[in-house]
Design a protein that fits this description.
seven-stranded mixed sheet; 14 strands; binds pyridoxal-5'-phosphate
Length: 477
């Protein structure tokens, strides 16, 4: 008989729908040889998206430093004799230069621990990226500080670090949007804190309102909760919504009034379609004295390098620990050092994300054409799925297309069933793996699903008619 043991109930009770029972069933079906389409998660390369050529050329040279010399020798050979190596594509000279520069700054390569917060040259590049993105030269906002940037294993670890510092016990509350990305609910639960929900307004394209924030805060305070922070996901997951600048200002006003930390999850800042633009919290914050943690990742955007686990958190206006002279950054550094360092390939992917080929560089044209093709294809696929919703009884999709997801409301379901049943049946009948809205939180009595609009176009075209047919049959009993 197996021994029994009392395990941490906070971990036992964790829920993480994005990898929950529906994806688990999909994995089982795949093992049985059934073809499934994993739209449960924003994992572009799992659905055939090609890595950006430049990123991988540089990375592979850094992984194998001897190749830098060899590739240079090949260029020299061709310069001497243009007919040499005919028919062979050489690695572009700028990729070789990038790799050589990285190796110069990181002579220990990818196999050695780095600083706990990540190599300084990468943090400096992130700071330059933030300053250029937010146009600090003209706005007069404070420049980003490389010592307030922590490189992490994806944004997930950065978020966990933030929550680790803020949550001590169940009286500590964190406001999160509903619907939300379940990293937040799961981590708050694991740390034994209190999740304080504020609801986004679906009919207003998932806008966040001051009233909803104030109501949620007052409700939590009335129960004795010490609310420490407000999480904002912009562009939104699962909603795809993009906050207008006025809403960002409203959140900052709210956080200032109530002395809250803002946790701005901005991992989808480059998943913009049509005329959409992104404004960061740091930009709107400017010189105001509100603590801001902003998160970014190599997993999303058009790069979609989820497996490389690159990400960072930037801290603005770090507070001092109550009753002491110790700073937030010192504690964060201590926390990061417990892990020794995050993975070095992730650091380098972050470096490339923020320091890409510039106009005039040999690789610039290919880089931009790959980027544009990925973003255009994502938008086209999202539009195709939206068109399919129009043929599904009672399916309504609010919000603009952003991030990598659509989050339609399933307005009609057979009595006694919920969105979990719907998504499970959809998987069984079509192989399409989505996530039920209840996995993200939603207004009681409403039903949704989240689909990542990532499958290759031909697969999508094949599955959409089957989904429409399934839907209309299922909801009409
Ligand atoms: C809103 C949001 N934040 C954070 C993450 C975590 O990303 P990663 O840890 O891969 O950087 C995700 C992943 O899907 C996400 O959707």
């Amino acid at each position: 008989m197996s021994p029994t043991m009392k395990l941490n109930p906070n971990v036992i009770d964790l829920e993480y729908a994005v990898r929950g029972p529906i994806p688990q069933r999909a994995a089982e079906m795949a093992r049985e040889g059934v073809r499934t389409i994993p739209c449960n998660i924003g994992n572009p390369q799992a659905l055939g998206q090609k890595p950006l050529t430049f990123f991988r050329q540089v990375l592979s040279l850094v992984e194998e430093p001897d190749r830098v010399r060899r590739e240079r020798a090949l260029h020299a050979l061709r310069a001497e004799n243009p007919a040499a190596l005919a028919g062979h594509d050489l690695v572009p000279a700028d990729a070789i230069d990038y790799a050589a520069e990285i190796l110069d700054k990181l002579p220990t390569g990818t196999g050695a621990y780095t600083e706990s917060n990540g190599p300084r040259f990468v943090r400096e590049a992130v700071a330059r990226f933030i300053d250029a993105r937010d146009d600090v030269a003209t706005t007069g906002a404070p420049a980003s500080d490389p010592d307030a940037i922590f490189l992490t294993n994806g944004a997930s670890e950065a978020v966990r670090h933030g929550l680790d510092l803020l949550i001590g016990d169940k009286r500590d509350g964190i406001m999160i949007p509903i619907p939300q990305y379940p990293l937040y609910s799961a981590t708050i639960h694991k740390l034994g804190g209190t999740q304080v929900d504020y609801y986004l307004s679906e009919e207003d394209d998932w806008a966040m309102t001051r009233e909803a924030m104030e109501t949620s805060l007052a409700g939590a305070q009335a129960k004795g909760i010490d609310v420490k922070a407000i999480v904002v996901i912009n562009p939104g997951n699962p909603t795809g919504s993009i906050l207008p600048d006025e809403s960002i200002r409203e959140v900052i006003d709210f956080a200032e009034k109530h002395s809250l930390v803002i946790m701005a999850d901005e991992v989808y800042q480059e998943n913009l379609y049509g005329d959409a633009t992104f404004t960061s919290f740091a930009r709107v914050l400017g010189n105001r004295d509100v603590t801001l943690l902003s998160f970014h990742s190599t997993s999303k955007g058009f790069y979609g390098e989820c497996g490389k686990r690159g990400g960072y958190v930037e801290v603005r206006n770090p507070p001092k620990v109550e009753g002491s002279d110790v700073g937030f950054i010192d504690i964060l550094l201590k926390l990061a050092s417990v892990n020794l360092c995050s993975n070095v390939v992730g650091h380098l992917m972050t470096y490339l994300m923020v320091n890409r080929p510039k106009e005039g560089d040999e690789s610039h044209a290919l880089f931009t054409s790959e980027r544009d093709a990925i973003i255009e294809a994502l938008e086209t696929k999202a539009n195709r799925i939206r068109e399919a919703f129009a043929q599904m009884d009672g399916m309504e999709c609010y919000g603009r297309t952003g991030a990598m997801y659509l989050f339609p409301r399933i307005g009609k379901l057979p009595a006694g069933t919920g969105d979990f049943d719907y998504c499970m049946a959809l998987l069984e009948k079509t192989g399409l793996c989505t996530v039920n809205g209840s996995g993200f939180g939603q207004v009681d009595g409403t039903h949704h699903l989240r689909i990542a609009f990532l499958p290759p176009t031909d697969l999508l075209e094949e599955v959409l008619p089957r989904w429409i047919e399934f839907h209309n049959r299922y909801v009409n009993g």
